[in-house]
Amino acid sequence: MSFSIRRMYRGDTSWDFLQVSRRVLICSAVAVIICVAALFVRGLNLGIEFEGGGVWESPASEAVTTDTIDDAMSDVGMDDARIQRITGGDDIFRVRGELPSGATAESVGSVLAEAAQVDPESVSARTVSPSFGDQVAGKAQRALIVFFILIALYLTLRFEWKMALGALLAVAHDIALTVGIYALFQFEISPATVVAFLTIMGYSLYDTIVVFDRVKDNERSLSLKARMTYSDLANVSLNQVIMRSINTTITSVLPVLSLLVVGSLFMGATSLQEFAIALLIGLIVGSYSSLFVAMPTVAKLKQREPHWADQDRNAEVLSASNSIESAAVTLAAERYDRSSPPRPRKKGRKR
Length: 351
Fold this sequence. Notes:
Distance between the termini: 61 Å
Number of strands: 6
Oligomer: single chain
Helix content: over 70%
CATH class of the largest domain: Mainly Alpha
Order of helices and strands: HHEHEHEEHEHHEHHHHH
Largest sheet: 4 strands, antiparallel
Number of helices: 12
Strand content: 5-15%
Strand order of the largest sheet: 3-4-2-5
């Protein structure tokens, strides 16, 4: 095992990533389809900053249940209120819904305090208008569009448009899976989650650019000397950077896990959970997509270029020629063995 790890650090492995990616991409396509279907079927659990409304939080006791809080909210006209009992640190009731007509945030907080059997001053309230939620959603969409445009321009100028397309496809794959998981499990999406999504895209692109940079270096130094095909060139490059990608992912995931476990579960900081879950999913998926989505896409596009298509044909001809020569040598050896007379046995000396 240690020998294999040392070989990975030196880049001496010879794994065929592109061959594996053909099978792995089928699983990715199925996962993306499931996530997109979840977006249409279940939708996203948007936070108050996007939908507008009010959020009230109250300390929770063992004697009071969510059904009691639900009945109290129905009495003030909040029949569609979403009520959660959040554990970890201090238990709290969180009530979210649209403010009823004729009611104020303070009056709803007083009803919640009475139902939860706590002091009204211990209840916190926060309201957001629907117009503000629309502004936040619009800004998030514009930020995403500008991000894709700038990255496409940079990668096209720094490398080429085929690599820009492969990188953006990998980023779209990462975002589709991450957002789809949020839709499947109905995690709440807040502005912190949107920031995490943008961070995911930056990390995924960083890992992808490392791979592309290695490919470009090898294309200048190896392809002319060894007359390699682009698939071989891509596999060599991926084997050289695989350990760097693994180490980068591990060192990035460990702090996020500590943020999620310690901050969210033990300290009760639920706002950290919204940020950490998106980061954790995105870091893992982003490392995978750099190796098995971005590079295989670029290799498929590059193989259609005349130079690399000729290299593929030459490799096929050479492989076929070697196979024919090997078969001819084997056949000649078999014929020689059949036509040669049997060797006489040596007689032993008489004593």
